[in-house]
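Help needed: design a sequence for this.
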């Protein structure tokens, strides 16, 4: 029984050490990869399924018709701006006449 406990404890310690090394390597790899790969590796690391939520939603709501889900999302997003007057390019408002309070300097963003 003493040998069993000793080897069990040794195996548990070894498993924890291996898991820690695995985790540290994954985090180190995530720090140097591009954003697309970062998300892909993070989702895989967290065990997320490959199906997108929209696919699952399409299966539940529209019997698998992803186009119908896209149309429903489009209609929903359009409702947000239905009460706004469309912009008129002949109105005279030019893009270069933005007030200074709305201009963000790239160095400010970098420092934040």
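Sure. Designed sequence:
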């Amino acid at each position: 029984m003493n040998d069993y406990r000793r080897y069990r404890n040794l195996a548990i310690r070894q498993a924890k050490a291996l898991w820690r090394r695995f985790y540290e390597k994954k985090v180190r790899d995530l720090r140097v990869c591009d954003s697309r790969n970062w998300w892909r590796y993070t989702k895989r690391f967290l065990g997320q399924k490959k199906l997108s939520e929209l696919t699952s939603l399409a299966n539940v709501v529209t019997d698998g018709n992803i186009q119908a889900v896209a149309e429903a999302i489009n209609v929903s997003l359009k409702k947000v701006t239905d009460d706004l007057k469309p912009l008129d390019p002949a109105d005279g408002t030019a893009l270069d006449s933005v007030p200074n309070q709305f201009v963000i300097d790239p160095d400010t963003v970098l420092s934040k």
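The CA atoms of residues 58 and 65 lie 6 Å apart.
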